[in-house]
Design a protein that fits this description.
The chain has 6 helices and 8 strands; from the N terminus they run αααβββββαββαβα. It is α+β, with helices and mostly antiparallel strands. The protein has an 8-stranded mixed sheet. Strand 4 and strand 5 form a beta hairpin.
Length: about 240
């Protein structure tokens, strides 16, 4: 009886862990069965609901009838928030802020594959993935040229990769913001994709706390953080 109970509990634990962390295995299989979505088909499916949720935010930022053609994505690891800004002739304005739904690693840049770190630096959006294992996702261009210039690896693949902003509430080195939030970020990104979309990932909001974290593994963190700090100075402080 006890053995049977232990087996049942063990099976339940395995199922829960698999459902939470095994998405990269079973979601692609489900996509094959259902048929893959395109960015266009995803946008058509979510746009009406997303517009209804974002309409007031966009109107406050000066967009009554359409989406901004330029946006900036800014992530703060210490505050665990992602901010979306619009940029046009009238300046840069905050559209909306989203909390992280999970977190891995600690303050400091990503240095190698498997370190569970969220990168830190100035990146770009590479593409949108409408068939992510985490619902929808936005690809971040890690490693960038600065990252590559500081690595000790001769094989760049050892630095790791596949960094995304995505849905759900589990992650290893990426930025999860939940399904409803990623729908909004996915759509805003798609509307601005023809212009380079900057992605700033900072250990903390230096506009509020200008102290740079000390990272024991490296000796170039001040150079990195000065670069990030200068980028943040161009944004309004809405806190």
């Amino acid at each position: 009886m006890i053995r049977k109970l232990v087996l049942i509990v063990g099976l339940i634990v395995i199922i829960i862990v698999f459902l939470k962390f095994g998405r990269s295995i079973y979601i692609p299989l489900l996509n094959k069965v259902k048929g893959k979505e395109t960015v266009k088909s995803r946008i058509e499916r979510i746009e009406k609901d997303v517009w209804n949720r974002l309409e007031k935010n966009l109107e406050i930022a000066g967009y009554k009838m359409d989406y901004p053609q330029e946006i900036i994505l800014v992530a703060f690891k210490e505050e665990r928030t992602l901010q979306v800004y619009s940029k046009d002739y009238s300046g840069i304005k905050l559209i909306k802020e989203y909390p992280f739904t999970a977190f891995s690693g600690q303050l400091g840049p990503k240095l190698k594959e498997g370190d569970k770190q969220i990168p830190e630096g100035i990146y770009k959006v590479e593409y949108l993935n409408p068939n992510s294992a985490y619902y929808l996702s936005v690809k971040v261009s890690y490693p960038n040229e600065f990252d590559k210039s500081k690595t000790e690896f001769t094989n760049i693949s050892e630095m790791g990769g596949d960094i995304f902003i995505h849905g759900k509430s589990a992650t290893i080195g990426c930025i999860p913001i939940g399904d409803q939030a990623i729908e909004e970020v996915f759509l805003l990104t798609q509307k601005a994709i023809n212009n380079d979309i900057k992605v700033i990932i900072s250990p903390r909001d230096f506009r509020i706390n200008s102290e740079y974290p000390k990272i024991e593994e490296i000796n170039w963190e001040n150079e990195l953080y000065e670069m990030i700090h200068n980028e943040l100075k161009t944004l309004p402080n809405n806190r």
